[in-house]
Amino acid sequence: TEEHLVLPPNDFNDIEETNALGVYVIDTEEIEEKYLYLLHPDYEPVLVDVSGEAQRPIPSKVVLKKGAIISGTVMLGEQAQKNVSLNLNMNTKIGPFPEMLIIGKAQTDEQGEYVYKGLPNEAEARFSVSLKQSSGATLSMPKTIPQLASINKVDFKFKKGTGTISGHYILPESTQNFRISVSPVDAPDKENQYHSQIGRGGNGDFYFENILPGQHKLHIIADFPQGRMRSHSIEVKHDENTTIDLSFPPLNASIEGTMASKYEGYRVKEIICESPQGTEEMKFYKKLSVQDGQYRIESLPAGEVTLELYKPNDKKTYTFHTITKAGEVTHLDLLE
Fold first, then answer.
1. What is residue 304's three-state secondary structure?
2. What does the DSSP assignment read for 28-97?
3. For residue range 180-218, what is the model confidence (pLDDT) as tens digits?
């Protein structure tokens, strides 16, 4: 567990002199000792041992290593993007802990420049920047640095697209929230800038601007992030608007049949359905309901269905294909 610690100022003068941005008490079931976790804006995070009931005196000096720095600019076309937020996630090993998650935030200045300081050297850094568009949608780009050097220069250069995508969506009334995203199929320079819009269920319109010409994948997820996902392939042309309407057909198809004993204990990992309305992916991770060697899977979409089975802690999977029809039961035997 990790919790905030309120420090009496008179007792921690030496620590205060480090201008620590974050001070935490860290304790785990595996490690009986307790530590202070200090994060200084210019130095690498450190742990100060205060094991037991924190009665051991705090060291008079806290030795901090010079930390890694990430800096760069955020641009859209030739225009610097000011007051833009960046989010950083790092999994790294500090002191006796096998893995710690460091979450950092930064913001660009008037010149579109940002900086992260005091990061652990040689750790992996994953971060992203998001630009709010006039349409209300978000334009985002992720970055990954496999191993931080002392000084890292990372620029986010968004390409200014000339195409747009618009349409209407119809979602089940029970949908709590949804996400629509657009990403290029073959991103140039491996810069995968993508657009997304998040909202609540029902009916409505969507609009994306600054879309690069070319082939794109459009995904809509109902009950984001764990719900039904439909994918569509679309082509965006220069200075043109591409329209597409999105909807989820009812889940009223079923599959049943005989199942071989070798599949006992297997679970449904994923169901993919191809239909004229697009590709739908459904993550199940549910155990097959079997009685007297017979199984049944309900609440499926209609179309060309691919069924994938897996067993926990086993890399081998089994794939079956069939065609389902709305309101009907399709027979599919899962045999040797």
1. strand
2. -SS--S-EEEEE-TTB--EEEE-TTTTTSPPPSS---PBPEEEEEEEEETTEE--S-EEEEEEEEEETTE
3. 999 888 765 445 678 888 887 778 899 999 898 999 999
| Residues listed for the chain | 336
Find the farthest-apart pair of alpha carbons in the chain and give their distance in angstroms, rounded. Answer: 76
- Residues forming a β-bridge with 68: 119
pLDDT tens for 97-141 read: 556 667 778 899 999 999 988 788 888 888 888 888 888 889 998
> Which residues, listed in sequence order, are joined to residue 71 by a DSSP beta bridge?
115, 153
User: Alpha-carbon distance 156 to 87, whole Å?
Assistant: 13
> Other C-beta atoms within 10 Å of 202: how many?
12
What residues contact 243, with CB distance under 8 A and at least 6 apart?
165, 166, 167
- Please state, in angstroms and rounded to a whole number, the distance separating the CA atoms of residues 279 and 268: 18
Q: What share of the chain is helix, strand, coil (3-state, %, to 5)?
A: 5, 55, 40
Task: Name which of 268, 272, 246 is nearest 178 in CA terms.
Answer: 246
Phi then psi for residue 301, to 5 deg, are -80, 165
Question: Is the bond preceding 57 in cis, omega lying within 30 degrees of 0?
Answer: no
pTM for this predicted structure: 0.71
Q: Which residues of 81-92 are buried (b: 16+ CB within 10 A; e: fewer)?
A: beebebebebeb
Q: Are 304 and 274 in contact (CB under 8 A)?
A: yes
Q: Which residue has the tokens 């601007």?
A: 209
Q: What CA–CA distances, in Å, run from 31 to 28, 36, 256?
A: 5, 14, 50
